[in-house]
Write a structure and sequence with these properties.
Blueprint (H helix, E strand, L loop, with lengths): L32 H12 L11 E6 L6 H13 L21 E4 L11 E5 L12 H9 L33 E7 L8 H16 L4 E6 L1 H4 L1 H5 L8 H14 L6 E3 L11 H27 L2
Parallel strand pairs: 1-3, 1-4, 4-5, 5-6
Antiparallel strand pairs: 2-3
Helix pairs in contact: 1-8, 2-8, 3-4
């Protein structure tokens, strides 16, 4: 009696590839042009807790090439309704382009006054003794740096120098510290740079200065976002990058604001504008709360 030949049981089908998207936005965002225009109007007419301050001062810092100057230009684009180059941007050369401490104001529409916020851009942070000295960012937080001060990576401004602002006004001081990092490189950012950023954040915390992170280049970190920026809060990759940023820098997730800067676009884009405006709205509210709190404890 011959033995029966057994046929192997079929292999189970391979598991489906993991999805790259959530079923719904994990951070609610309205993408309508009506909402975009409403945010523009609200920021144009933003009321300061202390009108004498003039402008809420936002200090931008982060690694070389993270997009600090590009963020300033992108905000300016939104309010001018066109492409602008208020802050000079270097090509991707790996070295910082900003050499002097400069205040960038945002002009209102023709015949209108400046908008109630301004940016200070500084040299990029680099490894070890290269790039901006962290003590000069701390000087800027406290309002000691004069306009046009030229950065020296080896020697931060001393209180013995004539240009050092000994008694800064509230207008001279920083009202919100904005860290700029890139989504596509956050997981491999140099430890020296991370340590410098943590040190600066710790000093800002001692001064009770609010802090946010603007995460640029999400389109380079996620193909979904590259195809459609409105998918940013559906993207698992972007949420993962934000979680890495939160872990590395110690910033809460709700203070990490992804933004796609204007770079090669010739025309403005409402969806890009909405991310920029969401970031600016949160920055302005934090800075204004800081001013209000100072008044209460004066």
């Amino acid at each position: 009696m011959g033995g029966e030949v057994s046929t192997p049981s079929p292999s189970p089908p391979p598991p489906p590839p993991p999805t790259k998207e959530f079923d719904k936005q994990w951070r609610k965002t309205c993408w309508s042009k009506l909402e975009r225009d409403a945010m523009v109007a609200a920021l144009r007419n933003f009321e300061l807790s202390d009108p004498d301050v003039g402008q809420l001062r936002c200090l931008l810092h982060g690694p070389v090439g993270a997009g600090k100057s590009s963020f300033i230009n992108s905000v300016n684009n939104v309010f001018q309704g066109r492409s602008t180059h208020n802050a000079l941007v270097a090509a991707a050369c790996g070295t910082t382009f900003t050499m002097k401490y400069k205040t960038h104001y945002i002009q209102g529409r023709r015949g209108e006054k400046r908008l109630p916020f301004a940016f200070n851009d500084v040299m990029g942070l680099e490894t070890q003794k290269n790039g901006l000295h962290p003590d000069d960012i701390i000087n800027a937080l406290k309002g000691h740096l004069p306009e046009g001060y030229e950065f020296n990576p080896l020697h931060p401004l001393s209180d013995q120098k004539a240009e050092y602002i000994q008694n800064p006004s509230l207008s001279d001081k920083t009202h919100c510290l904005v860290s700029i990092v890139t989504a596509d490189t956050i997981s491999r950012m140099n430890k020296d740079v991370i340590d410098k950023m943590k040190h600066i954040r710790a000093e800002a915390s001692k001064l009770q200065i609010p802090q946010v992170v603007v995460m640029t280049m999400p389109d380079k970190a996620c193909e979904l976002v590259n195809r459609d920026v409105k998918r940013i809060y559906y993207s698992k990759a972007i949420k993962d990058k934000m979680q890495i940023c939160s872990n590395e820098l110690g910033v809460p997730m709700n203070c990490i604001l992804p933004v796609k800067n204007y770079h090669e676009e010739g025309m403005l884009d409402d969806d890009m504008d909405i991310l920029i405006l969401n970031a600016m709205t949160q920055i302005m509210n934090f800075a204004n709360d800081y001013i209000w709190d100072l008044q209460q404890h004066a």
